[in-house]
Design a protein that fits this description.
By secondary structure, the protein is α+β, with helices and mostly antiparallel strands. The protein is built from 24 helices and 21 strands. β5 and β6 (132-136) form a beta hairpin. The longest helix has 26 residues, at 359-384. The chain is globular, with a radius of gyration of 26 Å. The model is unreliable at 1-8 and 22-27 (pLDDT under 50).
């Protein structure tokens, strides 16, 4: 799946909490039908795009061998974490409530099971958000990417074994550090076998740096926002969730694992022979992920582009929140692949969606993927240098027909609109240089004054109803957002805003936009979905977090008002990893100094990293660990409790489409 390079703690939380939040989807207010303006807009899409082109459907089904069981259960057997059965409705022509282009993409993403790519290379698709690729080596198997969860990975590898020879794994390859590409690793290999050298794990340089750390700071916010991007609590259906754009959805409540790589690819181009299979690795850092690599198999003439090419426009900026990706660099990597491998590749595969066969078609595909990111970058930069604002760039840019009419460059995951804004953000940040926008009023104050200027809420709602009838849904959604922020209890505004957002969702070509609009509508009608906090994470994930980053995460939870006037110094010594830290609270800021201990500390704690991790995942408590002798304390142990008491308890049920009810 896609992010500016994390395992992403936010996504780990999304999977872990999904079992709880699915039950929250039993909402009272039901979605409505498509309005005439939506029917007209979707009918125009049907007329304007080449729906008679069915090549993708042939490719998506080519090499099919067998499907998987309908449902994949959680480890405890209590929950269904993955099933394609809820998407059986995606047959025939698109209903009026789904953009026909997105409907086509959803149908393509419905094909699932074990597929033969070419001799000795197979893929399992549609058992998770991503693909598992299996290469038959001389004496065993090489697994490329292990899906998101142990449960889906186990079913995937067993599906292969049921239809092919049962051979041992000799290697696992992580293409990049997004959780949907490594989280299921313990479903295919044990950590003992890796330690014993029976199985090697290959990954791009700096994999572990990004596998957890990159998005941990904003993980709670990303978790909440990801519910809007992926829509896992929207009921699947013609008026609900139909797809995620480059896959169906995310597993609900699976077990996430991580085994550290044994071998890192460090050179830009590096050839390895793994059990008789030559693989040319190409590092592509800073493209779809900060650590990523593609793979070329000269024996089989197969190019694996990881997640750098897809049958959709990808995200330069993910709606759940992320650092902006470099479109110029991304495009250049695709161009390098085309130049280096294009004339010697018979099959192009990736770790999402279906392959492309034939050198001529592969060259066209790579050129389109290369040029879409370069076009967005160059034209956005051209306009920002002419003083266009992000919204103006998004409204102005239009894809050339040669790209707009190609299915692989349509915006099912990323969009031209939000990717163009991302380019602006990368170069110029949030400020558009208009001083009127330098220090605007907070949202609630802005909304109240705006509504008052417009003659009051009743007048605004009355006029908005006319705009709704005229199909001006973007405007109605915007204006009703102002009324709701001025008065969250205004039921008419909430309902009308939800109706407008729903129609926007029905018209959206991007699955991510559809999910966001429909989640917004659901929460306006039914209130904020009550969710758990991001909670604890698996021990595998916690072990991968550097100790320094844990202290930084504490610092990011420090409540400045509670810390006002307080000074605390705590020494930390971790005996098993040979690390020591001084953690200092002063001026309502929590800082740390690695490698040194303070001469005069309020308290000193000596423990192992293993004990620290067990407390972080709530397997034991600080007092119990001290009592058991797992932690040696000097000074005032109560100082740690005092510090922890100043840290905010973070919850993931904060409002998005209405104002915060309480200030921090």
């Amino acid at each position: 799946m896609e992010s500016r390079g994390s395992c992403s703690i936010y996504l780990a939380a999304l999977f872990a909490a999904a079992a709880c939040i699915v039950s929250a989807a039993a909402v009272s207010a039901q979605p409505k039908d498509a309005e005439p303006a939506t029917r007209k807009a979707n009918a125009e899409v049907l007329r304007s795009l080449p729906f008679s082109d069915r090549v993708d459907f042939d490719d998506a089904q080519r090499g099919f061998i067998a499907s998987s069981p309908d449902s994949i259960m959680s480890g405890d057997g209590q929950r269904t974490i993955w099933s394609m059965k809820p998407y059986a409705f995606e047959q025939g022509e698109a209903p009026a409530t789904v953009n026909p282009s997105l409907w086509r993409q959803a149908q393509l993403n419905n094909f699932h099971g074990l597929f033969k790519v070419t001799d000795r290379i197979y893929q399992i698709r549609g058992l998770d958000d991503s693909n598992m690729t299996i290469v038959e080596s001389d004496n065993g198997l090489i697994v490329i990417d292990t899906l998101s969860a142990v449960e889906t990975a186990k079913v995937a590898i067993e599906l292969y074994y049921q239809n092919r020879v049962r051979k041992p794994l000799v290697a696992v390859i992580y293409t990049h550090p997004h959780v949907d590409h490594f989280g299921g690793v313990k479903g295919v290999v044990s950590e003992d076998d890796v330690r014993a050298g029976k199985v090697k794990i290959f990954a791009p340089s700096h994999f572990m740096d990004y596998a957890v750390a990159d998005n941990i700071m904003a993980g709670n916010a990303m978790f909440r926002r990801s519910l809007y991007q992926f829509g896992p609590i929207l009921p699947p259906g013609e008026r609900g969730q139909v797809d995620a754009g480059h896959g169906k959805n995310v597993p609900r409540g699976g077990t996430l694992t991580l085994i550290a790589p044994t071998d890192l690819i460090t050179e830009s181009y590096e050839i390895r022979n793994i059990d008789g299979v030559d693989i040319e690795f190409h590092l592509v850092p800073g493209s779809e992920a900060p650590a990523e690599m593609t793979l070329y198999f000269p024996q089989f003439k197969v190019l694996n582009m990881a997640e750098d090419t897809n049958h959709t426009m990808h995200n330069l900026y993910a709606l759940r929140g992320a650092e902006v990706r470099d479109a110029r660099l991304w495009s250049s990597y695709i161009n390098e692949a085309l130049d280096r491998y294009g004339d010697r590749t018979d099959v192009l595969i990736a770790q999402h969606q279906w392959p492309t066969w034939g050198a001529e078609r592969i060259a066209v595909f790579l050129k389109k993927q290369r040029d879409i990111y370069k076009f967005i970058h160059d034209q956005s930069v051209r306009l920002l240098n002419r003083a266009y604002t992000p919204n103006e760039i998004a409204e102005t840019l239009k894809m050339p027909a040669s790209l707009a009419d190609n299915w692989s460059t349509r915006g099912y995951y990323g969009t031209l609109s939000h990717n163009a804004k991302a380019v602006y953000q990368k170069y110029l940040g949030w400020y558009d240089a208009n001083p009127a926008n330098l220090s605007p009023l907070p949202p609630v104050d802005q909304a109240r004054r705006t509504v008052e200027y417009m003659g009051g809420a009743d007048a605004v709602v009355t006029r908005a109803r006319d705009d709704f009838k005229a199909g001006n849904y973007r405007w109605v959604a915007s204006v009703m957002n102002q009324v709701v922020f001025a008065d969250p209890a205004n039921r008419q505004a909430r309902e009308l805003g939800a109706d407008a957002l729903e129609q926007l969702g029905y018209q959206a070509e991007a699955a991510s936009w559809r999910n966001a609009y429909l989640m917004d509508a659901m929460e306006l009608r039914n209130g904020v979905t009550r969710l758990p906090g991001i909670g604890t994470f698996s021990l595998d994930m916690i072990k991968a977090v550097p100790i320094a980053l844990v202290f930084d995460l504490w610092a990011a939870r420090l409540n400045a008002e509670k810390a006002e006037g307080k000074t605390i110094i705590i020494n930390w010594t971790f005996t098993d990893v040979g690390e020591k830290f001084t953690v200092n609270l002063e001026n309502s800021a929590l800082t740390q100094l690695r490698g040194k201990l303070a001469a005069k500390a309020d308290a000193s704690f000596t423990l192992t990293r293993a004990t620290f991790d067990s407390i972080l995942v709530r397997q034991q408590t600080w007092p119990n660990a001290i009592k058991a002798g797992d932690i040696k304390v000097e000074g005032e142990p109560g100082k740690l409790g005092e510090l922890i008491g100043m840290l905010d308890e973070i919850t993931a049920d904060f409002p998005i489409v209405e104002p915060l009810q309480a200030k921090p």
